[in-house]
Structure formats: C-alpha cells, structure tokens
Write a structure and sequence with these properties.
Layout lengths: L1 H34 L6 H5 L9 H28 L4 H21 L6 H21 L8 H6 L7
Length: 156
C-alpha cells in the first residue's frame, strides 16, 4: 500500500504538470491563430468546430482538472488509511483540500478572472505538496530497518 500511496501522490504532481503544459499549449495556439487573422468572439465559443488545433489543450485542462485529478486525490486519501505512513492521512487530506480549492478557483475564475492568479499559485502549492507527500514514503523514521541502515555518526 505504501507504493500505491507514493504512486498516487506522484501522479497528482504529474497531472498538475500536464495541466500547465496543456494550458500553455492552448494559449500559444490561440495566440498564433489570432496573429494569423483568427477572431475570438462569442460565435467561436458557441461553435461546435475547433477554431484552431491547439484548442485540445483547453479540453485536456478541463477534463483533467475537473475529473482525473480529483479522483486520483480521493484515491490517495482512501489508500492513506491503509498505507500505515506516519502523517500520511494528514498529507493526503491536504492534497485533496488543495485540489478542492483548485477546482473552486478554476470555476470561479470564469466569473472573476482575477482569481486566475490564485488558481496558478494554488497549482504550484498543489504540485509541491503532492511531490512532498510522495517523497515522505521513502523512509519511515523509527523502524528497525531505518536504524540498521542509518549511517553511524562519529563525534569529532
């Protein structure tokens, strides 16, 4: 279960990186399309056609952020109860809380665009927290295996 916990935590961090890549891909494509004479207006949003190929980045960002990452974070919390990692439940809970905040900021940003800055900042916090959560599984302090493999310090 410790390995599942670690993999799920790393997956959350990896998905946050995918989110950033998808958004930059989409925005760069949008910029290129506008520079080439494309016009972004309400008709484009309501159209069923893809105005530019990179629009898939917006779609990936929406699906990952509203469905994939929350499921992984929830699975991490469930697994944390069985992984027997000191503080594991707490850190999995923090990851899930940051995911919930991220979703809220993402949807609220459609009404208040200034929240986009907080959405980006929270993404960095989520990435770091998920990465830290995964790294915490490397070694549990206080087990006999840790004491046996710990380097011996010689006072000078």
């Amino acid at each position: 279960m410790r390995t599942v916990y670690k993999v799920l935590a790393y997956l959350v961090a990896a998905e946050v990186a995918v989110q950033a890549m998808a958004m930059v891909f989409a925005v760069a494509g949008l910029g290129k399309w506008v520079d080439g004479g494309g016009v972004l207006d309400k008709a484009v949003f309501e159209s069923e056609q893809s105005a530019f190929p990179e629009v898939v980045g917006f779609i990936v960002h929406g699906i990952n952020g509203s469905m994939v990452i929350p499921v992984i974070a929830l699975a991490l919390l469930v697994v944390s109860f069985f992984a027997k990692i000191p503080g594991g439940v707490k850190w999995a809970g923090i990851v899930l809380l940051l995911v919930a905040v991220q979703i809220t900021l993402g949807f609220a940003g459609h009404d208040m665009p200034a929240l986009g800055a907080l959405h980006g900042l929270n993404a960095l916090a989520l990435f770091g927290t998920a990465f830290y959560t995964a790294r915490r599984t490397r070694r549990v302090v206080g087990t006999s295996a840790d004491r046996a493999s710990a380097p011996v310090e010689i006072p000078v």
